[in-house]
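Key result, reporting period 2: structure in, sequence out.
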């Protein structure tokens, strides 16, 4: 028997940094995920990819999560 995992079991974290359309992209992500049980979180203004990934780990409430850049 195979262990199946649902995408609904993961958080979704949006990372933005100094993007002119970051707010619009985040709103679009919220619209796309409306109705899903996933928690959508935004990480903004963190300088450096590694630092941003550390912030996503801190923000996630699940063991695994999706990152949207």
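The corresponding designed sequence is given below.
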């Amino acid at each position: 028997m195979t262990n199946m995992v649902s995408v609904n079991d993961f958080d979704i974290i949006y990372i933005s940094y100094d993007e002119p359309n970051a707010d619009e992209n985040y709103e679009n992500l919220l619209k796309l995920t409306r109705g899903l049980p996933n928690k959508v979180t935004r990480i903004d203004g963190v300088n450096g990819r590694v630092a941003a990934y550390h912030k996503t780990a801190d923000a996630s409430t699940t063991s695994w999560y999706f990152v949207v850049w």
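Helices lie at 22-32, 49-59. The longest strand covers residues 11-16. This case is discussed further under Risks and Mitigation.
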